[in-house]
Input
Amino acid sequence: MSRLLKDLALTGFTHIDVIDMDTIDVSNLNRQFLFRLQDVGKSKSVVAAKRVMERVKGVQVNAHFGRIEEKPPEFYQAFHVIVLGLDSVEARSWINSLLCSFLEYDDDGNLELSTVKPMVDGGTEGFKGHTRVILPGITPCFNCTLWLFPPQTTFPLCTLAETPRSPVHCIEYAHLIQWGNERPGDSFDADNPDHMKWIHEKAMERANAYGIEGVTYTLAQGVVKNIVPAIASTNAIVAASCTLEVLKIVTLCSTGLNNYMMYVGSNGVYTHTVEYERDPECIVCSMGVPLQCHMETTLQQVLESLLTLPSLEGKLSAPSVSYGSQNLYMRGPLEGFTRPNLSKTMVELIGSKGGILTVNDKKLAGVLRVRLSYLDSRGPVPMSDV
Output
């Protein structure tokens, strides 16, 4: 985050907002040139913003200490470009879903370009790194290429419970087994310092019992949060690449990255650019998840169908549905007003040509579009007629 913030400021960007929920740890000092020993325990975003404004005259950096999910959609809509330096797949998926939910289409199904919010994503893992440019609705979104991220390493529970052989085994035992046994009903939060301290202490106890050395608080954080130690040179290269792409987007000074750059520095310096393809049926960035129903199908049946769609498995719990500016069924205070619509057919509610439904749910970062079409005796209605 520090290098990216510094690069953006020195490149000439004078209005920057930075949001980070982490505080400064002693381990950060070996690779973060904006932090000092007296800053340990303070907000990373607040300290970094202060130091950048001290060093780069004329730049205004607004710091936000908290989770990205705590900000309303309007906060992100106010920016020209969103730049990511996140450390988890979940956080990237959340912001990706939010920005894709801003997309709007005209009556002919053409994307309204004014609703596209460019996103530049950078990530590092040891001597490896990547930069990618995401133009929601145009280039592959994060969800289109989830397969790029390898599955997290797991360990058999029998090994953790019976034959621990490494510090990682002790930490995972405290995380996966002891927490549930000793603190039932207490939801574990890896970003809660008290929770991490508990995991570290329990892991130390188990390591001492089995004569295993090497359990540290930093290692416990890395294991639980799947953090790979950062390499300063990798961070610098990826931060510079991200900054260059932001400059291209804002000024159109050169052709932008299309659309993924991979960096490997373990054996020399190697980079490779790949043009990944967008998934036309992506549930996040496409025009809408396809859903077909009979013309006599009710709104209640459509809601039930959404909950059982394989592509939406686990993504919905209590959806609300609207069509354009019309609230078809809303949870909460408006539930009583919209409940009568549940027994009405979709033809009564949106007409005989189908259309785009907007779905909201507490599990979603943003809205979900559903492309509804009808089945009749002649078969499916062509999508071009919807």
